[in-house]
Amino acid sequence: MTEILLEVKNLVTEFSIEGESVKAVNNISFTLNKGETIGIVGESGSGKSVTSLSMMRLIPNPPGKITGGEILFHDSQGVVNLCSVPEKEMQKYRGNKIAMIFQEPMTSLNPVFTCGDQVMEAIILHQKLSKKESKEKTIALFQQVLLPRPEAIFNSYPHQLSGGQKQRVMIAMAMSCQPAILIADEPTTALDVTVQKTILELMQELQLKNNMGIVFITHDLGVIAELADRVLVMHKG
Ligand code: ADP
Ligand code: MG
């Protein structure tokens, strides 16, 4: 039985610059089911990242704004339109029920904190665990994403890790709250091909464990062919 996680209906996101308004996302609709991977492909500038940031309600305002449509999040408690919940309530969804990983890990990882502290902070924020429990959970997550010497990585700063390792820390952080939905915006584009392959396998494994829905954004059709159950093609929004 398919269970709907997310329904995006007629979504419009506009940027307004010097009185001119550009529809970066122009009336797109799709659904995401439990355990499913949908791919979003499209040329650079077609609106893929704006789509994913809209789902997280992370569009910088000004100049951007969601000006139309609905983003319906389904769970056991019912259906919520993420476009209309207050910001405070949105924080219950963002990072918790819907997590995101980016192409560039340094946009998610803060250079001045250790990797362990950053993942712990995400866990403490959303799960109300003690410091000791959060540390144990963080180390367990680092093991799960196959980081070598998790204790050492826990105490390392992001710049001390390789690109692939940083990406694994970011995935660990995204997985820390067992999100229903993972949005991955070109998560492996900056990595070499072998590292890319292991990261993608890792994401698929984690998906199976948690029956997660994944929105996978890429311009790499080979990757999409391997991962996605369905594909959306974006063109000029
Ligand atoms: P991509 O498909 O490469 O991820 P984006 O979603 O990042 O493309 O961008 C789509 C379009 O949205 C851009 O071409 C640009 O016109 C507009 N856009 C995105 N971010 C901003 C911003 N911060 N300010 C103004 N316009 C933006
Ligand atoms: Mg992009």
Provide structural commentary:
The chain is of the alpha/beta class and 237 residues long. 36% of the residues lie in helices and 29% in strands. It is built from eight helices and nine strands. It has helices spanning 48-55, 87-93, 115-127, 131-144, 150-154, 163-175, 193-210, 221-227, and strands at 4-17, 20-33, 37-42, 64-75, 78-81, 98-101, 181-185, 213-217, 230-234. Strands 6-7-8-3-9 form a five-stranded parallel beta sheet, sandwiched between helices. It has a four-stranded antiparallel beta sheet with strand order 2-1-4-5. Helix 3 (115-127) packs parallel to helix 6. The longest helix is centred in the last third of the chain and has 18 residues, at 193-210. The protein starts with a strand and ends with a strand. It binds adenosine-5'-diphosphate and magnesium ion. Adenosine-5'-diphosphate binds next to strand 1, strand 2 and helix 1.
Weakly predicted, low-confidence segments:
none
Shape: globular
Q: Total strand count, please?
A: 9
Bound molecules: adenosine-5'-diphosphate, magnesium ion
What order do the strands of the largest sheet run in, or round the barrel if closed?
6-7-8-3-9
- SSE string, helices as H and strands as E: EEEHEEHEHHHHEHEHE
Task: Give the amount of beta strand, in percent.
Answer: 25-35%
Give the termini distance in whole angstroms: 32 Å
Radius of gyration, CA atoms, in whole angstroms: 18 Å
The major beta sheet can be summarized as: 5 strands, parallel
Query: What is the helical fraction, as a range of percent?
Result: 25-40%
Structural class: alpha/beta
Compute the number of helices.
8
Quote the average pLDDT: 92
Indicate the multimeric state: single chain
